[in-house]
Write the structure tokens for this entry.
Amino acid sequence: MVNRRHGMRSLLPLIAALLAAACSASLVAEPGQDLRSRARQRVDPQSSAPLIAVFCYHDISDRPDAPSITISPALLQAQIQGLKRDGWTFLSLSELLSYKERPADLPPRVAVLSFDDAYRSFSEQVLPLLRKENVRATLSIVTSFLDDPPKDLAPLMSWEQVREADRSGLVEIASHSHNLHRYVTSNPYRDTDPSVTARRYLLEEARYEDREEYRARIREDLRESRRILREKLGHDVAVLAWPYGGHNAVARDIASGEGFVLTLGLGGTSARPEDMRAGYLPRVMVYRGSRIEGKGLGWLSPPRLPVRAAQVDLDAVYDPDPAVFVKRVNEVVEKVGRMGATHVFLQACPDPDGSGFFRSAWFRNHQVPVRADIWSMVAHKFRQAGVRVWIRAPSMNLTWEWERHPEWRIPFRKRKGGKEVTPWYFRLSPDLEGTRKAAIDLFTDIAVYLPIQGVLFDDDAYMLEGEKLGGSKASTPQAKSAAMRDLIEGIKEAVVAWRPECRFGRNIYAPAVEKEGVHPGYSQDFGQFLKDYDLTVVMAYARMEGHQQDAEAWAESLARRASRKWVPQRGRELDAPPVMLKFQAYDWSREEWVPGEELAAMVRGARRAMAVDLGVYPVLPEKGDIPVGLLGEPVPAFGSEGYPDSK
């Protein structure tokens, strides 16, 4: 069944008029240090602030069959010498932190070397090179690995070799955890995720570990790691490198309480002086193909890759019969791959009858019943196929609170002239504390339990003409826009506390893109969206907006309007606007699928306007006329037949 959630879209102007006439007639995120998404940080080559790059290396070897994170000794030496020629000053972590309160005194370009996992090659290859080049490095130890090495890793150092490195004066030893450098079961389907960022699913008890169990697990591991390092080295260590770079505010608070003054992640970007003061530094992972050379900084701030997205409703994928369900999952994963999507937007809450009421969820949470705990499982299937996964979730259309708290609702007039009119989404007023707490509770559970890589705020975040804020006398479009923005900014803070690298996007109605400033009919400000989100998703639904006959030209015009309003950051002038045109694949008013050629025409129009971020909705496993390669080349995980390669 095709979800008809947008089928009432044509009634919005009528509802707005009725509301205007009526008006004229009458769980908080866990505590922790504030974490901002580092994915949006860009290097400004003209900035006067010092540039700090912390490099993350692993094994150093010439083995031809080594993984991509293994580089040769010659390449490591060439990178060090090249950075020196290009004006970089090498500092140890402790030297870098000595500038914490006076970052202006740092050299203009600072490089810090770190090596994870304590491979034997560090003792045999890296330490002699550090002596030759007179540079220092940090070596991170997984304490359980040295006494019981995993069989799939290259040879590791002995404790005596670690002590030799520690005594060299060129190496600072750090913890890489005791036993957190592994994946743990994270859902009932036995999928796994990195231990620090996953809330474990206990298969024997058919439940997730609770908050205190999670805290205790992290605390006991870090305490044990620090104890062993103190025993083996004769002194404490003050730095922790998070396994796989994964961390969150709670884990960071625990690390601080256990005596770690600095933690290291990944993130692929430069560190900032404020990161030193906060006690967390992002690092740049070095691969065999990394081109760390030249005075240019492209390697430190690569261009943003295009986002080509399929929006999938799990309503059409789920079935209580496990065999049918798995078959549909495989079908939709293959379909998304064939159409050339790089990303998928998966719905958070079921709406099988298209009523707009959300009374359950597809994941573990503390607000509404779980219809089936499947979101994480489907997400893993997509990620295994090379597709990045975002969740599409409501911020104001929280049915469970709408029904419990009528006083939180955005009021509306049900009858006009004897005719009953029901608004589409049943939304809560965004300026009320109850709304804010309920939304943050929901998104906190999303971030805690799900392996999200991004959040797409659904199209319920709008307010019509005539709709009023529940807690404010000021209900201008500007005031309503600001109230929604404030609500979503609070949600974002709660999410990044648990998923620091999460990206954020928000749906916007196409007329709001064509309007300067705040659109009075939706209280949405496209220019503000461009500043607030990593991706602004324009619902470019040609048939719904009355452009079926000129869909291609309209898509081109819409893309040009969007790009003209984009002001790139200094130094990033060549970046494409972070705006996606999401095209309508189903005609809800006629109850028919949009022909594939019509979709292809809209894509052609958008591309003539140089649009690079494109999407389609809805994408279902068994229905829909979506051409192969509509958005781009099929993803690498899929062969010529569209099925996963057998290799």
